Amino acid sequence: MALLKPFRALRYDARTAGPLDDLVAPPYDVITASDLERLVGVSPFNVVRLIRPYEPELAVERFHAWQEAGILVREERPAVWRLEEEFVGPDGARRVRHGLVARVRVDPRGRGAVLPHERIFSAPMEARLRLIRAVGAKLSPIFLLHGGPPPSPIRVEPDLEATLQGVRSRLWRIDDPAAVAAEVGAVRGPLVIADGHHRYEAALRYHEESGGEETAYVLATLVSCADEGLTIFPTHRVIAGALPELNGSFRLTPVPGGAGEALARLERLERDHPAFVLVRPAGVVLAELPDAGSEPLARLDVAAVDRLPLEGVTFTPSAREAEDAVASGRASAAFLVRAPTVGEVQEIAQAGKTMPEKSTYFYPKLASGLLFSPFDE
What we know:
The structure is a single chain. The protein is built from eleven helices and 21 strands. It is α+β, with helices and mostly antiparallel strands. The protein has two domains: 241 residues, Conserved hypothetical protein from pyrococcus furiosus pfu- 392566-001, ParB domain, CATH 3.90.1530.10; 104 residues, no CATH class.
C-alpha cells in the first residue's frame, strides 16, 4: 500500500472568497482569543470559522455552504503540491523552508511508518476527533519530517500564494503522473511528526472507527531533515509558583552578566548532558545536570526542567519575554533551554520514546486554509 498519495484538493476560489491572505490562519492550537477575534473580523470566510468553531456542527454548515456558493472549489485532477515558506525566524535570520503537501497513510498498528516525538493529551485530541467526525475532511495539514533529500526550488510563478504573520507561503500544483511519482519517490521514511500530534492521533482514531480506505490518509506537509530552512527554536518555561531546590544534583554557576551571557555559555556547552539558564529576581544561574544518564531523552534540557516539581508553568519561545516576566514580578522564575536538534528528535522518535510537551518549536507553523482534503478519495 502506498505511503503517500496525491489528492483532489479543495481550496478557496479568490474570485468569490477574496484574497487568500484574508482567509488563512495559524493552526487551531496557537490561536489566541485576540487572534480569533481578529481573524473572524477579517473575512466571513476565514478558515478559523472551520478549525475553531464554537461547535463542530457550525463548521459542517459552513463547510457545505461555502462549497455550494463556490467559495471553496474542488480540483479536477489529483495532485501533490510543492510548498515554499519564506520567513524571518525569532533569531532574526531569513530562511526558506521547502515541503511537499500530499496524503500520508496513517499507521494504525504502530509499525514505525509514522512516529511521534511528543506526548499527546486526551482533551485536545478528542476535540479534533469530534471535528473530523462532523466535517468528514482534513482541514489542516500535519507537519512531518522525512529522511530524503530536499527538493530543488521551482522557478515559475506559484499557483497559490498567501502571507500570514510575516510568513509567505507559495504553492505549486504537480499533477503530471511522472512528476508526482518523482516527488513522492524522493520521500524517505520513517516519517516523524514535527507538529500536529493531536490532529494525527484524531485522524488515526477516526480511521479505526470507520475502517474505510477513504479515511486511511491524512493531509500532511513533508519536509526533509536536510532542508536548510528547517529550524527548531526553544520553548522556555516560566513559573508562577515557588522555585524548587536545585542544590545537590545540579552544578550551579552564577552569571553576573545576566541572561544574555548565560545563554551564550549554555549554547557552548556539550550536549552530552542537560543544562538550562535559571532567571530569578536574585540573579541568573547556569544550571547543569552532569549525571543525567546516556539515554537521548535524558540529555535534553527540557527533560531536566520538567522533572522538577514546578507550579504554574507557562511556555514562551521568547527568552526576552521570559526574562521580563521575572523582572516585572509576574513570574517567580524562568527556565531558558536549548532546543533539541533535528537529529535528537529523529533519534528519540525512532527509539519509541516521546519528549515532554512543548519540547520543540518548529517555526513557522504551517498555515491552515491553503488546501483541504475531504475524506472521499
